[in-house]
Automatic annotation (TrEMBL):
Protein localization: Cytoplasm
Stretch forming the signal peptide: none
Protein name: Multifunctional fusion protein
Family as reported in the entry's similarity comment: Belongs to the cytidylate kinase family. Type 1 subfamily. Belongs to the EPSP synthase family.
Annotated residues for binding of ATP: G11, P12, S13, A14, S15, G16, K17, G18, T19
Subunit text: Monomer.
Range of the intact protein held here: 427 to 645 of 645
Function comment: Catalyzes the transfer of the enolpyruvyl moiety of phosphoenolpyruvate (PEP) to the 5-hydroxyl of shikimate-3-phosphate (S3P) to produce enolpyruvyl shikimate-3-phosphate and inorganic phosphate.
Amino acid sequence: ARTVPVIAIDGPSASGKGTVAARVAAALGWHCLDSGSLYRIVALAGMRAGVALDDEAALAALAAALPASFADGRVLLDGVDVSAEIRSEACSVGASKVAVLPAVRAALLDRQRDYRAAPGLVAEGRDIGSVIFPDATLKIFLTASAESRAQRRYKQLMEKGMAANMESLLQDLQERDARDAARPVAPLKQLPDAVLLDTTTMDVEQAVSFVLERVPADR
Ligand code: CDP
Ligand code: CDP
């Protein structure tokens, strides 16, 4: 039997991975995985339980038995909607801290692979093409300049009525990118077999078309 096709979209913070992945998945009628939300939920669950964000064993145990679910674009932790809370800067920074821990990443591996189901999957994150689905049908490295990414994140937070400061957003984003790229386990990097998509001067529509045009017809 032919394997279920996967589109892997990896890239730095606020490059548009979530937005583009969701639109591509909707256009194809495929499933969608926002892998970053898993790391965000582990960070939130850890902070709530009073676990230090470098306590690998405790966080891996939390990750392995994460009482999280996804429904209608909402994220539930213990049945409570935490969709807005996991997008806070505290959870963004927390996610990139728990994400350096190999045992946490290992605990989330099968959970991510389970999303591969017919007719196809669009998955986004940092290590989708390198670790989670190295045999992906199409690999995209989605990026944009740090300034435009910070502006996008700022606009996004404003629209949600959340507090934001442009200067600290840009700084957090650059620190997080550096941590994601420098870590020994599953670092963010453009793979030799990934197609570069730099959206610094592109809108969402153009980015979505770019990906759809590259989905192999015979998959
Ligand atoms: O998932 P990731 O953090 O990479 O980015 P996102 O949450 O999808 O946020 C990207 C934001 O930038 C969204 O508000 C998009 O509407 C906007 N945007 C984009 O995604 N792509 C562009 N080419 C231009 C703007
Ligand atoms: O939306 P944004 O791109 O800012 O972040 P995200 O994709 O929700 O991921 C939050 C953090 O989780 C990242 O800074 C990474 O440290 C981590 N992450 C990861 O290590 N591997 C993934 N596949 C996805 C996220």
